[in-house]
Design brief:
- The chain is an alpha/beta fold and about 230 residues long.
- It is about 30% helix and about 20% strand.
- The strands form three sheets. It has a four-stranded antiparallel beta sheet with strand order 7-1-8-9, covered by helices on one side. Strands 4-3-5 form a three-stranded parallel beta sheet, with helices on one face.
- Helix 2 crosses helix 7 (about 180-195) and helix 3 (about 85-90) packs parallel to helix 6 (about 150-155).
- The radius of gyration is 19 Å and the shape is globular.
């Protein structure tokens, strides 16, 4: 493993490895430690006290970030009939039942897929293609619904989906480094609040074990979680 670069080392020197920071302090440090020449994504990584091997301890859900992610999200709505015009009016980028065939042919130029329940039976083997990419519509994520207007508008406004991985960690984007500290703090707060509300009844002991905020290229900043445990 190569040694950290000079810019990373200088950025890391601004952050104490022995200290845990409040949400406002953490996002402020992430911004100050940013050094890349592009608008880095700011991410949060949370380690949870759950065992994802048990179905009753899987943590997953969605949250609408107050200030969005800073990313333009391309939404595909697969539906038919009157719902086509509804999806178009809501701001969907791609709409129509014909996209099922396009997906089978390898078309994947979208970030989120919403589908109405009446067309889900036509997806067939697409789960093997869409599942690993996180694109398969799912009722729990609100992407299989008859209310396509609400689904599209929430996604466009900054709705993100999260799911604990097999090691007990949850990762999510909370904005861009160009966001103001207040915008990042409010997005992070909304995410943490949602994670807490998603605690499985079967989870025992300390639920939120650790959390770190960082930009794409920058060092991690550890969060103080005393008020959440």
């Amino acid at each position: 493993m190569s040694a950290p670069g000079k810019k990373y080392t200088e950025a890391a020197a601004k952050i104490s490895r022995d200290k845990f920071y409040s949400v406002p302090e953490a996002v402020d440090l992430v911004k100050k430690a940013g050094y890349a020449k592009f608008n880095e994504t700011v991410d949060v990584a949370v380690r949870l006290g759950v065992d994802p091997r048990h179905a009753d301890q899987v943590v997953r859900g969605t949250v609408v970030l107050p200030h969005g992610t800073g990313k333009t999200v391309r939404v595909l709505v697969i539906t038919q009939g009157d719902k086509v015009k509804e999806a178009e009016a809501a701001g969907a980028d791609f709409v129509g039942i014909e996209y099922i065939q396009k997906l089978k042919e390898g078309w994947l130029d979208c970030d989120v897929i919403v589908a109405t329940p009446d067309v889900m039976g036509q997806f067939g083997a697409l789960g093997r293609v869409l599942g690993p990419r996180g694109l398969m519509p799912n009722p729990k994520a609100g992407t299989v619904t008859m209310d396509v207007t609400k689904a599209v508008r929430e996604i466009k406004a900054g709705k993100i989906e999260f799911r604990v991985d097999k090691t007990g960690n949850v990762h999510a984007p909370i904005g861009k480094i160009a966001f103001t500290p207040t915008q990042l703090a409010e997005n992070l707060q909304a995410f943490l609040d949602t994670i807490v509300r998603s605690k499985p009844a079967a989870a025992k002991g300390t639920y939120l074990r650790s959390a770190t905020v960082s930009s794409t290229m920058g060092p991690g900043v550890r969060l103080e979680l005393g008020g959440y445990r």
